[in-house]
Design brief:
It is built from 12 helices and 10 strands. By secondary structure, the chain is of the alpha/beta class. The structure holds zinc ion.
């Protein structure tokens, strides 16, 4: 069975990217897994702190492990955007495969201190329990919401993009496995279109950082920008808002068209199908198909 680290390495060698999809319920889980399985590609399920509370930490681990072990399938669980050492520890202890400590809003030095503590904790567990938990950190603020936005959030511009120098310094100080930089990407989808990505900056950061890069805020980005970013060195891409949108639109329609239906598995079926289609389209693109 391949580990997440091996799958990332393989993706980089092939010039493709792994898809990371946030879910908040069993429907999302099935939708993402089915999409990945159809294409035969590894996939990462992400849970933010809020999603983790809703789904249940141990429950999420059990779901992912069951599928992985039963089908010998490379599906992994990531603690997406965790903001404290405490919540990172909880996810690691519960059995998550990877964690993200998000100190992007902190001054760089404070971000380094917090990230370092998380890396040390994960390494301790890896040594003790023979696991290979990956730690990802963020530098450069890219906003915090997975919603439809009227405009680009305040505090994000080309001047706030991550520099190669900062990336190199940050990785050397913290020892993180993965780095999520700011390269024109933002969380959420902007009504008038998301800003363009800067592939030349991705390339510079990948070289300077020396670790695989993760692109957050993938929803709303054009196919061309994705392809260029992957070519420039992005190994994992996060999609959340697009699946939320697919889910809520399909669910509203299903409820409106079948007002007398009471069976959740019937009401929810179109929402699962819509999320699956959204995930499949992105996975195809990320894998150059
Ligand atoms: Zn994110």
């Amino acid at each position: 069975m391949k580990t997440l680290r091996e799958c990332i390495k393989e993706a980089e060698a092939k010039g493709v990217a792994l898809g990371h999809f946030n879910i908040a319920n069993l429907e999302g889980f099935h939708a993402v897994y089915r999409a990945a399985k159809k294409l035969g590609v590894p996939v990462i399920i992400g849970l933010s702190e809020g999603e983790e509370d809703f789904v249940g930490r141990e429950e999420a681990v059990a779901l992912v492990r069951t599928i992985r072990e039963r089908g010998n399938y490379p599906i992994f669980l990531n603690a997406d955007h965790h903001y404290s050492l405490e919540s990172v520890k909880n996810a690691i202890d519960a059995g998550f495969d990877a964690v993200i400590i998000d100190g992007a809003k902190l001054p760089l030095e404070e971000n380094i201190i917090l990230t370092k503590k998380c890396v040390e904790y994960a390494k301790g567990v890896n040594t003790k329990d023979g696991r290979d938990i990956l730690v990802e950190a963020e530098i450069g603020f890219i906003g915090v919401s997975s919603k439809i936005l009227d405009a680009i959030p305040e505090g994000i511009s080309e001047t706030t993009m991550t520099s190669g120098k900062d990336a190199e310094y940050f990785v050397s100080q913290t020892g993180v496995d993965l780095l999520a930089p700011s390269v024109g990407n933002i969380h959420g989808m902007v009504k008038g279109g998301n800003p363009r990505l800067h592939p030349e900056r991705v390339k510079e950061i990948r070289q300077a950082a020396g670790v695989p890069l993760v692109l957050h805020g993938g929803s709303g980005i054009t196919d061309e920008d994705f392809t260029n970013a992957i070519e420039a060195g992005v190994a994992i891409i996060h999609i959340s808002t697009e699946l939320r949108l697919a889910y809520s639109q399909a669910l509203k329609k299903s409820l409106a068209e079948n007002p007398d239906e009471l069976a959740p598995y019937k009401i929810l079926q179109p929402a699962v199908a819509a999320m699956e289609a959204a995930a499949e389209a992105r996975l195809k693109l990320f894998n150059g198909r």
